[in-house]
Backbone:
């Protein structure tokens, strides 16, 4: 398989860095091809604006989705966007590697999504969820937390991690057609010892060798949801 890792951590010696290096080692040993976009090392600009494009649909008023549609039809994406789109469309598995910051993605990674998941190329025109452009590919979050697992439980201080990740799992991955794997979570990595970190790396390796067989997270399908919505509207 072709595995594409989008890595978002500013410190190469961080545990996020260790997880990405371990993923490269394990996946390559399994015969997979691995491509990594290390966003900080690349100097990735997370701000989405006209710099995304070398074409212009409307030079007087900027509407990103309109410009994305136009760029998709006229080979108009800036080189850095085009390169990431090529990696995304070529991969079989997409992995986001990041630390939870303020209960969400780091800004640099959210900015990567804002710029790369372009309308007309990655979604739109009725192509979403079960009919999404990226259907048939798998996606997984690999993340680290500051707090421990009990704090991210349903009754914990921070609330359920599952709910915190829903906008990513459902609103980014599943929306574009990706099949979503359960996340890999390294809990409270700044507060555990080397033995615990070694166990996390071992467990992550086990997850990576089963990317093709791990049971997917389940979400309502668009075909299941639409009739219920229409029924409620008629009622």
Residues:
């Amino acid at each position: 398989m072709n595995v594409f890792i989008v890595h978002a951590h500013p410190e190469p010696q961080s545990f996020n860095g260790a997880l990405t290096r371990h993923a490269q080692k394990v996946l390559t040993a399994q015969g997979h091809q691995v491509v990594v976009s290390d966003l900080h090392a690349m100097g990735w600009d997370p701000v989405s604006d006209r710099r995304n494009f070398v074409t212009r649909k409307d030079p007087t008023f900027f509407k990103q989705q309109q410009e994305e549609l136009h760029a998709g039809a006229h080979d108009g994406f800036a080189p850095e966007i085009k390169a990431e789109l090529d990696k995304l469309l070529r991969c079989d598995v997409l992995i986001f590697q990041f630390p939870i910051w303020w209960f969400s993605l780091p800004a640099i990674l959210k900015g990567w999504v804002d710029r790369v998941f372009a309308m007309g190329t990655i979604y739109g025109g009725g192509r979403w969820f079960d009919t999404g452009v990226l259907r048939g590919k798998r996606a997984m979050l690999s993340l680290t937390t500051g707090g421990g697992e009990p704090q991210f439980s349903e009754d914990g201080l921070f609330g359920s991690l599952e709910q915190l990740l829903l906008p990513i799992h459902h609103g980014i991955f599943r929306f574009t057609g990706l099949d979503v794997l359960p996340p890999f979570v390294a809990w409270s990595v700044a507060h555990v010892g080397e033995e615990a970190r070694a166990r996390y790396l071992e467990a992550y390796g086990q997850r990576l060798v089963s990317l093709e067989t791990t049971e997917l997270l389940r979400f309502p399908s668009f075909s299941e949801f639409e009739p219920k919505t229409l029924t409620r509207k008629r009622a």
Remarks:
- DSSP finds eight helices and six strands in the chain.
- The mean pLDDT is 93.
- The two ends are 48 Å apart (CA to CA).
